[in-house]
Amino acid sequence: MPLQDFLAGAAMFAFTLAAVAVATALVVRRRLRHLDGLELGLASVVVGTAILIGVHLVPLMLAILTRGTVLAAAALAVGLAALVRPARPAAGAGAGPGRGAAAAGSPSLDDGRPPPPQSSPASWALAALASAFAAAAALADLGRWAGDELVGVDPLTFHLPNVARWIQLKSMWQIDQFVPLLAHGDYPHNGDLVLLSTVLPWHNDFLVRLPITFFLVTTAVAVFAVARELGAPSAASVLAGAAAVSLPVVGIATIPRALPDTLMWTTFACGVLFLLRHARTGRRSDLVLAGVALGIASGTKWYGVSSVAVVFVIWIAVRLVAARRAAGGGGAMPRTLGDGALVGGLALLGSLPWLMRNLILSGNPMFPLKVAPLGITIFDAPRDVIRDEVGFSIADYAGNLDVLRQLAGEVVEGLGGAPIVCALAVAVAVLAGARRRGSASDPRALVLAAGAVALALLYTVTPATALGLKGDPSLAHANTRYAVPALLVAVPLVAWAAGRLPRALALAFEAALAAGALLGAHQGYEVRGIRDVVLAAAGLAALAAAAWVLWRLRERRIVLAAAAVAAALVGLAAANRMQDRINDGRYRNIDPGVDAMLSAAPSGKRIALASDWSVGGLSPIWPAFGTRIDNEVEFVGHFVRGFLTPYGTEASFQAALRRGRYDVLVVGRGFYPPKNTREQRWAIDAGWRTISLTTRLRVLVPPTGR
Predict the structure, then answer these.
(1) What is the pLDDT of residues 152-163, one digit of tens each?
(2) Residue 95's pLDDT is what?
């Protein structure tokens, strides 16, 4: 990438982030000053993420997405935030039990939160060990991957290709699909909007790991905050945060693949946090933050939609029961219904643009799921061939002990031993709720336990949790991501239980969770030796020391300004070095077929894809777009009842090749290659010439003199 292009992209990226930061600061300072530092930080994450998504989503919805329109939208966001009026001090904050000083409008460090039990030195040692190792392992993994291309089936097959099509077409009003008989283009795409924010400035993907890693960190912080909100010991809360991001599947999905699941996990945990906080304070602002956070989560993944729905149903059910029992009951029920409408409406709003797109273009907001409550069809859907063949759920194998044993191994591979420790903590919460005595009588812990159980049950019935051919769920570990929401709710309960159990038993709980975190981080972040950990730990120590020095010098504005300028220059140089390493030979020397495709179509070409290929190697879809998203990429097929479908006859396939006027054709050689797929024969019969033949792919160019 030429230096001037890099600097121009960096300027746009910096302006967008600065505008989002200013708008966030205006909103947070004027409306949320009552929150303490940790809560204020997480509220800023929620508000800032919503603004970042909005400044990209609005131009997309208006079909005018460009660098300029995003900059204009960011500036408009600052203007709108400036119109937000400061919150007025109120005499009371609502129905919650924790009104007091914060309810009167003055800032408070605890806002009525009960003091946590004391943590023992042994607990602090376990927490420090687990958190330090997780941080070092993640940083080492990031260091290894920072100069390498993105890998993984999902990002290369649909996440980044979707972003590329948005940039090329300037609109979200199309179903972008590149693999037949699947429905990636109908997914909720809030996470891809975050990826878009790092791709659009440069038309290049070198920085996409940055936001995903940021949300990995904030997920740990949010889980810590949930545990603290429950009144868990401080050390156990730190341990809970470390354990949440040390699940093997979290590391595997995050840094090498940059999957947007971390956005869903952060905002989901923040939503739970502010619902719990509202139960204590009664503040309406907590409900707004919870609704916005859950809305972002529901609009990021389909399992986010179902997970948010479960949390909302449990929360509103508990509120309705409490309203009925309230003394007098006169105003409690209307207030509860109003609160439910607020949270539910905001949660729906986060996924509404994607549901609208699906309704307009596919005829079903939940496509490809048939919506038929109580057997009454509201939105029909065709048969999902892929789901019927490989998308089994764990519940589909109920009673099949052989398959369930295999599934247990897949779950352990993805989640480690955390589910067992969390199950014990849920049992403690249930017993404590049944006894309702002393400090263990906080009903929120029992509600959280119910939520964890419900989310775990939801995981077992979610399609593709037993991914693989019938009777052989050999790919189920990859989708243990769908169980993470249940663990984000359950892990804080382990910390909470540690403060309510006898010291020896509590320490055993913490030791088990710490051991799981160490093993999970080692596996998920692919620690390759002690050298990786030592170097990463030294880097973390240097950063911590620099932060401590700056904190001590915080009153010296000139020093802080100089440090900020130096950090910006170092970051700019590091980013340029990173993009240079990634783009020099980008996706070369991995698959000879992809090499041939890139040589034949470096930029400004039309590339066609056909048939299917194995997922065991590099997907050609995202590399086909080129280094600067200059190539047009299409699958040779047509939509039939919402599904992209291959042509069924030679004549129709060859006619599509002629209409498309493609420069290169990449044909897969089957899911279990090498197969003589029919599209290969049809292309050759039409005069297309093979320039590369590998086990997985055949690359062809059109007939001479076309």
Answers:
(1) 899 999 999 999
(2) 44
Question: Beta partners for 192?
Answer: none
**Is the pLDDT score of 433 beyond 90?**
no
Q: What is the mean pLDDT of the chain?
A: 90
**CA atoms lying within 13 Å on the CB side of residue 348:** 9
Q: How many CB atoms lie within 10 A of CB 547?
A: 10
pLDDT(436) > 80: no
Which of the residue ranges 93-107, 264-278, 365-379, 537-551 has the most confident prediction, judged by mean pLDDT? 264-278
Share of the chain above pLDDT 70, in %: 94
What is the Cα–Cα distance from 79 to 181, expressed in whole angstroms? 44
For residue 394, with 0-12 CB atoms within 10 Å meaning exposed, 13-18 middle and 19 or more buried, which class applies?
A: buried
C-alpha–C-alpha distance, residues 343 and 355, integer Å: 18
Q: Rounded to the nearest 5°, which phi and psi values hold at 598?
A: -70, -35
pLDDT at residue 92 is higher than 60: no
Residue 703: DSSP 8-state: P
What type of residue is 149?
A: E
**Residue 359: pLDDT band by 50, 70, 90 thresholds?**
very high
The amino acid at 248: P
DSSP line for 155-209: IIIIIHHHHHHHHHHS-S-S----STT--GGGS--HHHHHHHHHHTTTTS-TTTH
Which run of H or of E encompasses 606?
A: strand 606-610
Report the alpha-carbon distance of residue 650 to residue 657 in Å, rounded. Answer: 11
When pLDDT is averaged across residues 76-91 and rounded to a whole number, the result is 85
CA distance 152 to 618: 8
Which residue(s) pair with 667 in the sheet?
610, 698
Report the relative pairing of strands 689-693 and 697-701 from DSSP bridges: antiparallel
Is the separation of the CB atoms in 253 and 481 below 8 Å? yes
Neighbours of 29 (CB within 10 A): 14
Measured CA to CA, the distance from residue 489 to residue 273 in angstroms comes to 10
Residues present in the chain in total:
706
Give the angle subtended at the CA of 321 by the CAs of 318 and 324, to the nearest 5°.
150
The DSSP code sequence of 220-257 is HHHHHHHHHHTT--HHHHHHHHHHHT-SHHHHHHHTTT
Instruction: Supply φ then ψ for residue 296, to 5 degrees.
Output: -60, -45
What angle separates helix 443-461 from helix 484-498, to the nearest 10 degrees? 150
pLDDT digits (tens, 9 = 90+) for 147-199: 899 988 999 999 999 999 999 999 999 999 999 999 999 999 999 999 999 99
Q: Check whether the bond before 211 is cis (ω within 30° of 0).
A: no
Q: Which of 48, 295, 289 is nearest to 190 (CA)?
A: 295
In sequence order, what are the beta bridge partners of 699? 666, 692
CA 271, CA 297: separation in Å to the nearest integer?
A: 9
At residue 98, the pLDDT reads: 42
| Cβ contacts of 30-33, under 8 Å, gap ≥ 24 | 30/84, 30/85, 30/86, 30/87, 31/84, 31/86, 31/87, 31/285, 32/87, 32/285, 32/289, 33/87, 33/107
Best CA proximity match to 266, nearest among 24, 448, 43? 43
Q: Are 656 and 644 in contact (CB under 8 A)?
A: no
Query: Which tokens hold the place of 180?
Result: 């037949």
